[in-house]
Amino acid sequence: MTSLRAHVDGLATDVRLPDGPGPFPAVLVRTPYDRTRHRAEAHGWARRGFAAVVQDVRGRFASAGEWRPYENEAADGTATARWLRRQPWSDGRYVAVGSSYGAHCALVLALEADREARPDAVVAAVPALGAAETAREPSGTERLLSRAGWWAAHGDRRDSDEGALGAALAADPGLLAHLPLTGLPDRLGRSLPSWAGLWRHHERGRLAARAADAGMPLLAVSGHHDHFTEDTVALWRTWGGPSARLLLGPWGHGLTSVPGPDAGPAHRVDLGDLYVRWAHRALTGGLAPGRRGALALGGGDLWLPADTEGEPRTYGQRRANGEPRTYGQRWTDGEPPAYGRPWAGAEPDTHGRRRTGGEPHAYGLRLLRGSVFTADPDRPVRSDDLAVPADGEPDRCLLVTSPLPRPLDAVGPVRVVLRATADTPSADWIARLVALAPEGTAERLAVGVLRRERRVDRADRADRADRAEEFTIDLGRIARRLRAGVRLRLEIAGHHFPAHARNPHTGDDPVTVRRLLPSRREVDPEGVTLTLHVLASRPTPTDPSQEIPR
């Protein structure tokens, strides 16, 4: 193999060529994370017949210029793609490949570059679609921990320090609780001028809106435990190219290097080999048209077709016909009560009770405590702790199901509907779904965050119980096998810190505010429903090594 070095418009670029006379198809990787860390990846591509081009983005590592995240990539990528296609070792075809910010670089080439520079295919893994998409949830809530970690490691510097935030938190565990949040650079001890500007980005969806006009194949890759899973799935669903493939595993943002607790042996995938085989098929027109892919069933050690989705199953305190549920015993030991009155008729439901055939049915969701609670920014519900205080004033509303009598495969979106009030102008509502195993362990399954803002006057405060509003919190998609004996705990809270910034409850900007107030919440337990999507029969597995390049 031959290695070359170049500077394209001041951007440091490494090229690894396959053995042989060429010309070759190419892959282009543009990264802010140091091109030299991609040497093994470039070697793998070249060994399989691709010219591998890896470049530091502007202002990072060996590339000239100023590092301005999400601002220069369309222009710089276009210049690089044109240069690539002019090289004597290039046959004119190339695949844009990237992970995280690198996926943003690949996607802007596919969706915003002129036709002469657009790639022939795109691999986008755990894509960071833009500044606003990475900084906030769709409803506006700030993703504090992940953005603080990324900016501390990579922002306003030529190199990277992956452990910068961890070291700062070790020195000051309350680092992210200090106000205002715009003062974080001072507490980190270095200049970080772009930090405040990050939070001024509110417009989402620029790239996603253009996905329908894409003209090339896409391979989208993500993990159930990644921050950007929903963006990845939406990209796959709306992609307008001739074919779109989705690989969604039980992984975090680092993909196979960060397996989740639900990963099994079948979920070990050689992503490099899969990317190469897919790319060869994409460039030769060998991919079947349409949307396909593979979805890992966490806890089940198998893969399902990417479009698999169960039937909706709703848990609540009322049956689907609106009648209240009757519970036959009080709680004495923290375990959920048995139902004290059997359902009439001979048809058993899937939880072992009997019900009248054809009668509308919702599965039980029992209130533990906290129908009235205080969302206090001084003692927020923490995103990194699943323990629940057993005494004192409630800081969240807690509901729980009965133990599952048999395994359940939940595949599809999770949704919570609430009827609730807050006595403050602004309120974040967090719904967290947790699996409670019989042996006493707890595991987070899904989290949804919704910011609601409204005007509150004195009369409104006095009348808040009568002014309850119904709203929906989307918790994203899950694909999980839950074993028999597991109970589902649903938490309704006002904070999810430090993953998300604390809402000051005043209507002021959480990033610049210097004062936080508590918010009194009231939840109508009979107005809470949890909807999962459950497979009705044993699923038919698929093999991602065959499904993705098909």
Question: What is shown here, in short?
Answer:
This protein is of the alpha/beta class. Helix content is 19%, strand content 31%.
Descriptive account of the structure:
19% of the residues lie in helices and 31% in strands. The protein has helices at residues 39-47, 73-86, 101-112, 131-135, 144-154, 164-171, 184-188, 194-198, 206-210, 229-238, 271-283, 458-462, 544-547; strands at 2-8, 11-17, 24-31, 51-56, 90-99, 121-125, 218-223, 243-249, 251-252, 255-259, 290-297, 302-305, 311-316, 347-348, 354-355, 363-364, 366-369, 372-375, 397-400, 408-422, 426-436, 442-453, 469-482, 487-493, 519-523, 529-534. The strands form 5 sheets. The protein has a 10-stranded mixed sheet, sandwiched between helices. Strand 14 and strand 15 (354-355) form a beta hairpin. The chain is globular.
Blueprint of the fold:
Elements: E1 2-8, E2 11-17, E3 24-31, H1 39-47, E4 51-56, H2 73-86, E5 90-99, H3 101-112, E6 121-125, H4 131-135, H5 144-154, H6 164-171, H7 184-188, H8 194-198, H9 206-210, E7 218-223, H10 229-238, E8 243-249, E9 251-252, E10 255-259, H11 271-283, E11 290-297, E12 302-305, E13 311-316, E14 347-348, E15 354-355, E16 363-364, E17 366-369, E18 372-375, E19 397-400, E20 408-422, E21 426-436, E22 442-453, H12 458-462, E23 469-482, E24 487-493, E25 519-523, E26 529-534, H13 544-547
Parallel strand pairs: 3-4, 3-5, 5-6, 6-7, 7-8, 8-11, 13-16
Antiparallel strand pairs: 1-2, 2-4, 9-10, 11-12, 13-26, 14-15, 17-19, 18-25, 19-24, 20-23, 20-25, 20-26, 21-22, 21-24
